[in-house]
């Protein structure tokens, strides 16, 4: 019986430690960040860069995640994305806002890292046509959202931010394992009609 109790407690401790490792943190700029480093043995930085570029171009529709900057010499890809957060009232839920973020991917030989940061919450309101739309001019960084929205909603939005970051990160990891299918530049052969 003691063995079972000790095993359960140790399993609970391991799950808690794993959950703490994979969570939102605060970076040196006092912003929320989700950061991961992944080893990809045997792959060059050019290959990882091409796969990361393929991820930004093919994984999501342009409105959800788009590439904003690419630097092949440094091995850096930066994109911006967004996702919706909803609020439930009794049985029915509605769009309560949108959270935008910046995703950065850096590659080196045999490894890459990525992180999500600059989370900004934009609240939604119902318009005269009974549809939800962004409130104009209100963009709240998640670091200051704790004072601007209810604590329950804030905690739920942080949880959804973490879940979205994990989900997009998992999609990136799957694309980094695949061979990228970016179209290669067609080389046009020049033909001289002066010589036979």
Number of helices: 4
Q: At the first level of CATH, what is the class?
A: Alpha Beta
Span from first to last CA?
Answer: 92 Å
User: What is the 3D form?
Assistant: elongated
Please estimate the helix content: 25-40%
CATH architecture: 2-Layer Sandwich
Q: Which parts are unreliable, with pLDDT below 50 for 5 consecutive residues or more?
A: 3-20
Strand content: 35-45%
Average the pLDDT over all residues and give the rounded result: 80
Q: CATH topology, which one?
A: Alpha-D-Glucose-1,6-Bisphosphate, Chain A, domain 4
Alpha-carbon Rg, integer: 22 Å
Number of strands: 8
Number of structural units classed as domains: 1
What is the structural class? Answer: alpha+beta
Q: H/E order of the elements? A: HEEHEEEEEEHH
Characterization of this structure:
It is a single chain. The protein has 196 residues and is an alpha+beta fold. The chain has one domain (23-177): Alpha-D-Glucose-1,6-Bisphosphate, Chain A, domain 4 (2-Layer Sandwich), CATH 3.30.530. It is built from four helices and eight strands; from the N terminus they run αββαββββββαα. Strands 1, 2, 3, 4, 5, 6, 7 and 8 form an eight-stranded antiparallel beta sheet that branches. β5 (92-108) and β6 (111-126) form a beta hairpin. α2 crosses α4 (151-177). It is elongated and about 80 Å long. It starts with a helix and ends in a 19-residue tail after the last helix.
